[in-house]
Design a protein that fits this description.
The complex is a heterodimer of chains A (about 400) and B (about 150).
Chain A: E1 10-14, E2 26-32, E3 35-42, H1 50-54, H2 59-67, H3 74-89, H4 95-123, H5 127-148, E4 157-158, E5 161-162, H6 168-194, H7 196-202, H8 210-216, H9 220-224, H10 232-235, H11 256-279, E6 297-305, E7 308-316, E8 322-328, H12 330-342, H13 350-356, H14 381-391
Antiparallel strand pairs in A: 1-2, 2-3, 4-5, 6-7, 7-8
Helix pairs in contact in A: 2-3, 3-4, 4-5, 4-11, 4-13, 5-6, 6-11
Chain B: H1 7-23, E1 26-31, H2 37-45, E2 58-59, E3 68-72, E4 75-76, H3 77-89, E5 95-99, H4 101-105, E6 115-117, E7 127-129, H5 136-152
Parallel strand pairs in B: 1-2, 1-3, 3-5, 5-7
Antiparallel strand pairs in B: 4-6
Classes of the chains: A alpha+beta (about 400), B alpha/beta (about 150).
Chain lengths: ~400, ~150
């Protein structure tokens, strides 16, 4: 036996099947006792090749495929894609359709933030709050089901408008539901900011300064909790956000507590916004006609998902199928902050830290092929396209 | 060493085993490429409004403690080996419930280069719950149907 002069590094592997998160991801935390010294994240278990699959489907079929990139923020994917295609086709949707899209997008934010609050409380060992927030979340699920007929993938959008109208009776139901949720959210705010046990799990954990957040490219509530005033809805308003601007929620804390406060404050603002939109709904049609073949061109379009900035790049070659669709989802931008922030914290804080960015694996698993051979060559766009067609023949 | 019991005893023991199994199935959940939609509905079935736990169903972290594997999503090439490994780690007798259209056939992702297809291409499946995503009531119905089918077995 030899004495080991160097202390051996101990690595704790977690996943891909693990009780902490409901989605597969593999993590390797190097630990020194209880303290994490390094963090490696391995993703890719839910890579389904959606971007490639879009090229085999028509513009309309893709609406349903892209909505299933992520089941939690499904509507915003369809909305941003539809806005992009309408821009390419050069059509303007009726104002009432814009309002309905905005209302559903905001209801989705309510459902997503309440879901997150429950999961985050669960990871912190606070299961009572988990059960409470999920019970109250059923209110907004009922509202969404009443509007669209489905609880999760609502499929609100058509290319050129929306599928359903919101009548006065439904609007009243939404108002009543929001009143109940607002009261409950006040209670959650009180619990999250005053419960000493829970504060012990969130205060000064995973602190990310504004400089770090900007350097690591954080987006959405994660960035706003570090004091970065970044929100697509106020930076470049789309849909009905021009007429009814949001109030940007920013907090300087940078820790987990700040992320709780920012998301809960966003809920209050969302309730206000939905009421305002319901009161000012313009009358009119729901759809306009859009040609089946979309004119040649390319467009880059942004929207604010519950988790942050969502970017779509669409390229059309004038046929009824897209030439290329590229999606950049908010979770992918926020992952980088984890491996940076995790070092120096206890292993027991890792689930809370992971949940703090509201991670979503299904929208960020990409395939990267690293070519290690020497004979690298530059391909033009046309050559690459021809190569792709030949490859899949 | 194996002791052989009289057949009447074996029968009695079997009925006790089935009774125990039906009254308290422990489940684990694995996402093999789902969009999350089914996963949040499974979680919703465990929360107060639907409360799957009243049937004795408990969500469990480790495959070695579980009787039922609830599987969501199409099987991606990357998750395939893990799914088989988790299935093999579960003690016998084990049952698989597939939740969602993608797990049945690949669903909307059918034909994509990284998708193997439905879950039954990889491991044997006992119950299917269709829907995109299925309602919590449908998931409860699927689990109860599985438990009923166990009761009928001798």
């Amino acid at each position: 036996m030899t004495n080991q002069s160097q202390p051996q590094k101990f690595i704790v592997p977690i996943g891909p099947q693990h009780p902490a998160l409901k989605e597969p991801g593999h993590f390797e935390f190097g630990v020194d006792g209880e303290i994490v010294t390094s963090a490696t994240i391995r993703l890719g278990f839910v890579h389904r090749g959606i971007e490639k699959a879009t090229e085999d489907r028509t513009w309309v079929q893709n609406l349903y495929l892209l909505e299933r990139i992520c089941g939690i923020c499904s509507n915003i994917h369809g909305t941003v894609y539809a806005i992009g295609v309408e821009k390419l086709a050069g059509v303007e949707i009726p104002p009432r359709a814009k309002y309905i899209r905005t209302i559903v997008a905001e209801l989705e934010r309510v459902h997503s933030h309440l879901l997150w609050l429950g999961v985050a409380a669960h990871e912190g060992g606070f299961d009572t709050l988990f059960m409470y927030s999920w019970r109250d979340r059923e209110t907004v699920m009922d509202l969404l089901e009443g509007l669209s007929g489905n609880r999760v993938n609502y499929s609100t959008n058509l290319i050129g408008g929306v599928k359903f109208d919101i009548n006065e009776k439904q609007a009243d139901e939404i108002r009543r539901g929001l009143d109940f949720l607002e009261e409950r959210t006040h209670y959650y705010m009180k619990v999250v900011t005053t419960d000493e046990t829970f504060l012990g799990r969130t205060r000064d954990i995973g602190t990310m300064t504004r400089e770090q957040a900007e350097l690591l490219g954080a987006v959405g509530p994660t960035a706003r909790a570090s004091g970065v005033p970044r929100d697509v809805r106020s930076e470049s308003p789309y849909l009905a956000y021009n007429e009814h601007p949001i109030q940007l929620q920013v907090h300087d804390g940078g820790d987990l507590l700040a992320r709780f406060i920012v998301r809960l404050n966003e809920l209050f603002d969302t309730y206000r916004l939905i009421r305002e939109l319901l009161d000012h709904m313009p009358a009119g049609d729901l759809t306009v006609r859009v040609p089946r073949r979309i004119p040649e061109g390319e467009v880059l379009i942004r929207g604010e998902a519950p988790r942050g900035e969502l970017v779509y790049y669409l390229k059309s070659s004038g046929s009824d199928k897209p030439d290329r669709i590229k999606v950049r989802t908010p979770s992918l931008c926020n992952w980088g902050t984890i491996s940076h922030v995790a070092v120096g914290h206890k292993l027991a804080d890792m689930p809370m830290l992971l949940v703090g960015i509201d991670p979503c694996f299904s929208c960020n698993d990409r395939l990267v092929t690293v070519n290690n051979t020497q004979n690298s060559q530059d391909l033009t766009w046309d050559a690459l396209r021809r190569y792709g067609i030949e490859y899949y023949k | 060493m194996e002791t052989k019991l009289p057949s009447t005893w074996e029968k009695a023991l079997d009925s006790i085993r089935t009774w125990a199994r039906v009254n308290s199935p422990w489940v684990i959940h694995f996402n093999s490429g789902s969009c999350n939609g089914c996963d949040i509905e499974i979680l919703a079935t465990l929360t107060p409004r639907y409360d799957l736990e009243r049937f004795g169903v408990k969500l469990q972290g480790s495959p070695r403690h579980a009787d039922v594997l609830i599987c969501t999503g199409p099987v991606t090439r990357n998750a395939r080996d893990r799914l088989v490994r988790i299935y093999n780690q579960m003690p016998d007798p084990k049952f698989v419930v597939v939740v969602g259209s993608c797990g049945l056939s690949g669903g909307v992702f059918h034909g994509s280069y990284n998708v193997m297809g439905g879950v039954d291409e990889v491991i044997p499946v006992d119950a299917y719950v269709p829907g995109c995503p299925p309602r919590p009531e449908a998931i409860i119905h699927g689990v109860v149907a599985l438990l009923d089918s166990l009761k009928k077995k001798p």
